[in-house]
Amino acid sequence: MASVGDIGMSALINTLSALGFLLAFAVLRIQPINDRVYFPKWYVDGKRRSSPKNNGVRSWVNLNFKTYLTFLNWMPQSMKMTEPQIITHAGLDSAVFLRIYTLGYRSFFCYFSTRILLIDA
């Protein structure tokens, strides 16, 4: 059986891994070279065109350091959007993913809040 120290170490490793992947996603998302991966709808709708190949480093790396300070602003904004706005902005798959995510979050909160009440009783 696992000890409390083993469970704590596992929680630490999982938390650091999750934060590392979130940070990698957030930094890669704002790089110009990844626009077609993270924002394909902009190219389909004609809001953005392929960048010229002679821009040098700017076509690969975002050199505007102010964007690195606000790279996680998309998270609260996406949670405040209505479902039709999410479908229009990001697509149906994103709306379904966010619905599943919020359902899991609410289920987790409800389950553990009742478990804590039952343990204390």
TrEMBL record:
The chain crosses the membrane at residues 12-30. Keywords: Membrane, Transmembrane, Transmembrane helix. GO terms for molecular function: calcium-activated cation channel activity. InterPro entries: Csc1-like (IPR045122), CSC1/OSCA1-like_N (IPR032880). Residues 7-113 form the CSC1/OSCA1-like N-terminal transmembrane domain. GO terms for cellular component: plasma membrane. Pfam families: RSN1_TM. This is CSC1/OSCA1-like N-terminal transmembrane domain-containing protein. It comes from Cuscuta campestris. The lineage of its organism: Eukaryota, Viridiplantae, Streptophyta, Embryophyta, Tracheophyta.
